[in-house]
Amino acid sequence: MKRNVPLMIAMLGGLIMMIQYFIPHQASQDVFDYYTEWAPLVGSFALILGVGSITRVHVHKIRAKAPNWPFSLAVLIPLYLIPLFAFFLPASIGGGTENPSLFDFMYSRVQIPIQATMFSMLAFYIASAAFRAFRAKSALATVLLVTAVIVMLAQVPIGDLLGRWLPDTGLWILRFPNLAAKRAIELGVGFGMLATCLKIIFGVERGWLGGAGE
Amino acid sequence: MNNWERFLNIDRRWIYLLIAIVVIVPFFIRMGLPVVPTQEVRSVYDLVDSLGPDDAIFIGWDFDPGTEAENQPMGVAVLRHAFARHVPVFVTAYWPLAQGLAEMGLASVFDTRVPGNFVYVPWAEWESVRAAGYAGRDSLESAWEAAGNSLPEGARGWVFEGVDLANLGYLPYFSLVILGMGTSIANQYPTDAYGNNLHDMPILQAHKNLREVDLAVTLAGSTACMSWVVYGTSRVGLPVAFGVTAVMATDYFPYIQSGQIVGMMGGLRGAAEYEVLETEGGYTETTGKAYRGMDVQSLAHILIILLVILGNIAYFAGGFHKKTAMKNRR
Amino acid sequence: MYETIGLSVAAIFTLAVFSFLYKENPLYRFAEHIVVGASLGYSIVVTYQRVLYPRLVEPVSHGQELILLIPAIMGLLYVTRFFPRIAWMSRYPMAFLLGTGMGVAFPYDMQTLVLRQIQSTMIPLYTPGAPWFDTLGAFVIVFGTLSAIIYFFFSKPHKGPFFGFGSKVGIWIIMIGFGATFGFTVMGRISLLIGRVQFLLGDWLGLLN
Questions:
Q1: What is the nearest CA distance from A163 to chain C, expressed in angstroms?
Q2: ipTM, 2 decimals?
Q3: pLDDT in tens, A162-192
Q4: Which of B87, B271, C54, C59 maximizes the CB count within 10 A of its CB?
Q5: Domain count, chain A
Q6: What is the domain extent for residue A150?
Q7: Candidate from C55, C108, C194 with C-beta closest to B231
Q8: Which fold, B35-287?
Q9: What confidence tens digit (pLDDT) does each residue in A20-54 have?
């Protein structure tokens, strides 16, 4: 009941969907259509898990007055305030009806700038890494370095000024040797995915059962 | 500690400062270096350019705010192109946060304070015209204008929701949504992102499923874009074009060569190329945000290459390649 | 008014995050925590408005499509995860989604990621009239892909004319691939920074017209 039934559900579900692909019959199509309508519905409940666990962790921190506990408030307040704004307080900042709501405000003026800036800081880190770690230590490292430099120059307009050969070489690298390398890697990924599918369907891979007790 | 070692151990904040200078200063010294479009971007542009009011495209906002700077200009560029050609556009979102980004992308095309933009006519607003019977886009436009509406100065055209645009919004398990849309778009999306009933919309009556759609452009900062190929192209032969972040772009050249994707805009450069093509094609007066970023991009690349070279000079001149490990490397 | 407040708030948060570059500080940590709560809060709203309301609450409250209660109950089983005694029940929706998801993916993945890719590697090495660099490129695609695959083949020692030479060529090809990725990664990271600078200088300070 606790382990075998879920494993059987996974196997049956997997096999049915796999077989379904090869049966171009209306009944099979109907099963499939139901499935594509149901699955997102089931899946959306998983969000409760995320909200629940994050609440639990931070409430615990606040209660225990753990180090830096006030930051936990910075997680919990927007987490509950944003739905509150959206569902019960569709008010706007300026008071008028023309202005975006508080909900939109939290998204476009708080969420987006923070997240976008966090990612943009990687530019500084990669520059620092380029200076400190990118070394032509061996022949292979030199190939990597030279390719990177050619591609970097080829991708920007200033590369064109140095001569048309530069962007042309950059594109050739991308379209041929880069393609060969990536295809080998993607094929590996593809076979890996197929193996994972089969392992989960046939119950060889059971990691997903974990974390819910015995 | 010799001088080379001291140089290599320089406080990283000096490097940060250099980067900051290089990405700020060029904005004030416009160089306007030419951006030459590549075949990868041109194929996407040409395909959109060959479409018209009887066709339809999907634009998938499949990224989250982290990669907004790269992906958003691509979305805006394709939207402008499609609206200018009256190609009906379906907008979808792969992530919850992407739905807001899609709305912001649309809002920037509908901001009539900016010349060359489009005037958005929400579904509810043209209800009276619709009540008299819908007989195609051209007659709708004349009826709308006859009802006393006129394009503001500088605006490029009308975008009628339900005819030129349907913003479908976010759904979870988007791969399955793509599969489901192979049979019926309305089954997956009973309403659009604003709660309007999709069944009534002319855009949906003309394009009931993905087989009746001519292109999907997916804007992604993760492997989300592959869902369109795996479940759209493979199942119903949907042509798919990528607008992906530069970090991922190199991974997808195999799919261009195999013909599984039509073409690709890679990073801000890809978006800039699309903007250049659009301006050349007469769809926009001037290029946009992505193109403006290209001067900065040029100088930043030069700086990083210089940093690599300097780092290597110090490394070899200081004799560190002979030692097994460097001391105190931060 | 809204514009000014909005842009200023956004700019303050942008600068708060950038302040980390100088030194770790409470302002940065505050922003970092807010984004976690805000993104989840936003997801709750969008998921309810886009999925739960139109697909479940609305039809069921009108007494239509009561069959939708089945996936709803299955979804609710996720919640059992918070009650250790019955936490095992949360495996049911997971089993359903994972199993069926894998079953759906298998044939499509096989077709897209494997078969088509193999097929597209079997190309003519020489096309009459093609420029020399394309012909060279075709050789690189065919033999480069093969060698890179050999390099990743760990079940045989990389020795001898086939595995030994093949894997050596393979690693060179892979390094070129990684070099290209590195170049593009630099490009992408800089672009993201450009986006923020455009926001600060242009949208906020209005200096870029």
A1: 18
A2: 0.92
A3: 889 999 999 999 999 999 999 999 999 999 9
A4: B271
A5: 2
A6: 122-175
A7: C108
A8: Rossmann fold (3.40.50)
A9: 888 888 888 888 888 988 898 999 999 999 999 99
